[in-house]
């Protein structure tokens, strides 16, 4: 019915709205004012905001694609955190404040300015303490940057792939330290963060040289990238009959073919091959939800599972 009454875009938005389990009555709310009541003045401001947002999004999306292409060419593994920070999709206080989930947008560590991803990972004094222990070229890079995309654009112009890889790893450690501080009340010393980052970098270098020595994976050559702005999740599963364990691997790649996240998991389950494939599909989809992905292609090699998922039949067996 929703699809009959509204156009495709509007119907999509309505159908994505979560329905409350509390059975409370619906009421009309306007998000443009503090007291949720409508005014023409606030509608005018909303429209200005929307137009500005659309134009800035279009330009940042092309910069994002260019940055990601360069990282891919340099064979840097940026990881999902950097990817989300460039899209300003991290749960920073600025983002939570926009959704009215926290009372102010300030950085939870320094309280000096609104915490967007560039503040949390780069501009914050606590982050600078970590960067000051890193490679010299990163230490010298002091200019205040507005967004993570702009920062990466500058780094890509001036630095080699090793330094960019270091930047990606250290940024990840800084975010984890911030979260530990927020949720567990512990705050690691900058030296400890850098030491941990160096360990991760050594592992990445080892992995890189191992792959360099090894053979190319023929399966990857057959892989088709998803359309622009889409993400593809590939899953595969294996059965360990002797121990009754099902193992699942999921790889998440963007439209340039770049791996942005991976996941490995296993579970004690009846070692049935079809169940293993279905469990793999479930884990792939759950992983996509965890990462907050919306435009996703899920790809697996089990035709049987894909056909079951495609069919509208309910009441599948266990
Ligand atoms: Zn701060």
TrEMBL record:
Per UniProt, residues of the RNase H type-1 domain are: 234-316
Gene Ontology molecular functions: nucleic acid binding; RNA-DNA hybrid ribonuclease activity
Domain of life per record: Eukaryota
**Domain Reverse transcriptase zinc-binding: start-end pairs:** 38-131
Q: Which Pfam families match?
A: RVT_3, zf-RVT
What InterPro entries does the record tag this protein with? Answer: RNase_H-like_EbsB-rel (IPR052929), RNaseH_domain (IPR002156), RVT-Znf (IPR026960)
Could you tell me what this protein is called? Uncharacterized protein
